[in-house]
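Hey, resending since the last one bounced:
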Amino acid sequence: MAEPDVSSTLHLNLLLNANGGNHSAWRVADDPVANVLGLKNYIATAQAAERAKFDAVFLADRLAFVENPAGWLWSPLEPITTMSAVASHTERIGLIVTASTTFIEPYNLARMLGSLDHFSNGRVGWNIVNGYNPDAARNFGLTELPPREKRYDRMYEFIEVVSALWDSWDDDAIVADRTSHRYVDPEKVHRIDHVGEHFRVAGPFNVPRSPQGRPVYIQAGLSADNREFAGAIGEGVYTNLQSVEEGVVFTQDVKRRARLHGRNPSHVLVLPGLVPHVGSTMAEALRQQEEVVEASDPDGLLHSLNVMYGTQYAGLGMDDVVPASELPERSFTMVSTPGVFARLIRDRETTVRDLLRLMDVDAHRVLVGTPESIADDFGRWLGAGASDGFTIMPSLLPSGFEDFADQVVPVLQERGLFRREYEGETLRSHYGLPRPVVDRG
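The structure tokens again:
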């Protein structure tokens, strides 16, 4: 049987978080310190994802220490450095790294990502963020985060600059003509002469254009600003969607915005986070989920809630109801994780245990089931247009991903919902995205 067209099949990323996404994963990991601070686990998990034909592995980032002794070290290693090592031990799988536009200059980041895109042969994606943590701002010489509007203005201009730098070399600029002593044709390397509100960059770039033209632009978030950015510039969207209905509304909105910007809506892929618990039976899958919950730390959860909302929760047991009365009114309209938790606490009697079930990975959708039922769910989302695939976020690594790769992926492949082999070598080819064309006219 012929392989399905790339546009009719799922795209799957894997969030690469050392021990796994659950805050207490380190308590059940074989070697929690080595897993987080050594390369072995990152490389082995990325290789497993490549064998499963995943589109990409994804490294998140955080630029400040979280004062929660019981919590895990969430993304302590710098993503570009880590992915450089992963790149040297993989051949096809995409490599998505997170980098902020608020705390670095465009030329520096363009060189780092451009270099990684070259020696990975065009496999890089850039998860573009503009900062949300005041503690991070204080680590970069600021007393507080710039206002949201200014961060977004800087982000748009930042992307304009790095895009111009990556596109400043023609594809055939390297001639390597030994007879004429010309390695580069200077007529095919162009200044950018950018002068804007935030940046002044002359160019040209000193790194040639990469095999895929430039890295794939990934965006994360749920807000109207995030959706507008995804429609205007984003090529992949990592977000938090809880139901098919919610997914349809979000995905249609993002693709509508892409169309309004004159873009092909199929060139923006919506890939929400998903936490799977896989078992040969539903009972086994539920037991696996409960084992993770029981290893979790109630005090760590309460600390996270206090950081999000400025509350003073303390001393609650696993089966105590979290009181909504302490939540500030603004919390109910917040987007992504804080809003999901706040509305859940407000709308029903929610215990600490209930929240810990959602806390696998910051309130992303949790799916408990057999390989067949999980494949059924994926088919429903794809068929309804609720997403283009998922970012898989196992509670535990590597074991949680091994279960998914060994049990769920073959069912998806058998049903024609996921590739059996890579068709190209770059991340753009995996996503079915065109190589950017530079118009010098």
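The chain has one domain: 9-167+195-281+365-431.

Sorry for the duplicate.
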